[in-house]
Design goal:
Elements lengths: L9 E6 L5 E6 L5 E2 L2 E5 L4 H4 L4 H12 L8 E5 L18 E3 L2 E2 L5 H12 L4 E5 L16 E2 L5 H17 L4 E5 L18 E2 L5 H14 L7 E7 L5 H4 L4 H4 L5 E5 L6 H15 L4 E5 L22 H17 L4 E6 L1 E2 L26 E2 L4 H4 L5 E2 L1 H12 L5 E2 L2 E2 L7 E5 L3 E8 L5 E6 L5 E8 L6 E3 L3 E3 L2 E6 L3 E8 L4
Parallel strand pairs: 1-22, 2-23, 4-5, 4-15, 5-8, 8-10, 9-11, 10-12, 12-13, 13-14, 16-17
Antiparallel strand pairs: 1-21, 2-20, 3-19, 6-7, 17-18, 19-21, 22-28, 23-27, 24-25, 24-28, 26-27
Length: about 500
Amino acid sequence: MLLPFVMTAAFILLSLPVTTVHSATVSSTPAQTFLGIGGSGAWWPHDLFNFPASVRQNLSSLLFSDSGLGISSYRYNLGGGGVGVSNPVRAPQTPYVSPGVYNFSADPQGTFFLQQASDFGVPGITMFLNTAPAPLTSNGDSCGGQFVSGTGTAYATYIVDVAEHWRDAGINISYISAMNEPDSTFGPVPCGQEGMLVEPSQRSEVVSSLWNELNSRGLSSAIGILADETSSTAVAPTEYSAWLPEVVDMVAHLVHHAYDFPSDANYLAYVNAAHAASNGKTTWMSEICCSLGTPAGTGRGYSQGFDPTINNALMFAGLVFQSFVVGGEAHYDFWTLVSNEIGCEPLTSSTCVTTANSNGWTDGMIYYDPDYATNGNSELYLVKHFWTYKHFGNFVKPGTQRLPLTGSDANTHTLVVSNSTTFSVIAMNPNTTTSTLSLTFPQTVCGTTGFRTSASEDFATISPATGSGETWELPLSATSLSTYIFARKAC
């Protein structure tokens, strides 16, 4: 499981809805401790493994080092074998051969990037499954069927065998999620991806079987169980009573997706319901993608369309603020960090990767050409979402703590995080006019530098905030996300 480390920086994340001067005071009392921010290794490794070694290494650096996103959470997809799945990219191989018999050379694509995440020191690695191996599902396929009651022990043995194999190889699998979006079969066969329905009444068997297997091997304190990754915050709490009371002490964190794109009020309602159902278990947001909308958050909702611009990138940044600030959550994962759903041909259009279109999907931070195998294009295309997410990946690290803001201008999109030597202020201005943020810190600080992402800037270094003592002013350019760094000492 993730362990807090000695804190060395402090962060304030802030979304500003208007363009006047905003004043707020930083509290000195922590509200939550962060555990991680990251995304998923499905399904892009299938393709990217075939790219030149130099490109693969560059991609790993872009994802896992602080010169890139600097994510602290990586979700490795343990494949089900893809039986019945029509799209080979979404059909990762499984090491499962038969009970107790494995081929650990299977899925070299996924395990390569799993190893890369470990080599770069990503502290939180989750192994998640969309389905059990086909022989254990109701229809003998990797989608379109469901979990078979009574197979929990066999399923758990397989999962823990794989986790133990990789841990013995030096890869610290710290969490397991045995049912990703159990509310759908993703059928009918042939399916577009793997999936397995797990009825709410069956989910306690999945969790208890997994916990018993971990416990029998002395791993129950080393590997946490995540559940149940239902796709909607509206649906998840309505199903908790069917499975959670029996296994609540076996679950490390309640993990959800947010494809219903809830309002702030509904998001908070979900978190409160989850806390009530679990005696206060922490909740994680572990998957989101695929929405259009404005920087201020209007127009959000699951939809097709590729929008690489700052407007959509700020909309998705707003979802991070919603999880961290409104929900008070400790962990946030995007869906596919890398995608081929670009919706255009980058070799024939110079504006393909910078212009919105209705054919692609906004489901990645980095894009690649889906026709790479025939046209030889191994370029990686970074969209604005990469640069806005970098602010969170670089400056919201495990062990940092949120400090609320107080005052008349403190709103529900405000987050303060503290550790011992540095304050960093991440401030989003979704408006088309500039504004200023005036902050009063709980101690004397010194502004040292800053970074900004905007329509014309990726991660540009900007001048430090101005001020002295405890009071400082932070200029916020129109339609931008900025980070200002402060040393916790006098200038």
